Amino acid sequence: MAKRGDKTPSHRQLRVGEQVRHALATVIERGELRDPELAGISVTVTEVRLSPDLRNAYVFVVPLGGGEADDFLPPLRRATPYFRRRLADSVQLKYVPNLTFEADTSFDYAEHMQNMIGRLDDKDQEHGP
Predict the structure, then answer these.
(1) Domains along the chain with CATH numbers
(2) What is the pTM of this model?
């Protein structure tokens, strides 16, 4: 049993988050959104984090092939009511969570760390053993 104040998500939060992620990805993948600002932009839902009461979901997205968050976040946020209706149809929950779309920066951070490690390795090779 998790102790109070523990920030790790419960098994239920993870399971429901994955169901919500899959349902949102399916809607986006099928091109059901008719927003012209999303035309030609492929967006991947990388993660969904749910609050402990499952009423709020933070949806992390990243554009395939690169791009700026400013290009795809506003139209996704405008489509939130549509996404919630689709979730109500596809995921069995007592309450459909409020959705907050955010850019997933974890890939950028991983790349930055990899570059830093590479620079350290280069310095070590310059100075020898």
Answers:
(1) 11-127 (3.30.300.20)
(2) 0.76
Q: How far apart, in Å, are the Cα atoms of 31 and each of 5, 35, 76, 93, 114?
A: 40, 10, 12, 24, 34
The residues, any chain, with a CB within 8 Å of residue 60's CB and separated by 6 or more, are: 45, 46, 47, 48, 49, 102, 103, 104, 106
Please check whether residue 65 is in contact with residue 72, taking contact to mean a CB–CB distance below 8 angstroms. Answer: no
Do residues 62 and 43 lie in contact, with contact meaning Cβ atoms separated by under 8 Å? Answer: yes
Residue 17, SS3 per DSSP: helix
Give the full edge-to-edge strand order of the sheet including 56-63. 43-50, 56-63, 98-103
- Render each residue's pLDDT in the chain as its tens digit; 129 residues: 445 556 788 999 999 999 999 999 999 888 877 778 777 778 889 999 999 999 999 999 988 776 677 778 898 999 999 999 999 999 998 899 999 999 987 655 455 566 667 666 666 666 655
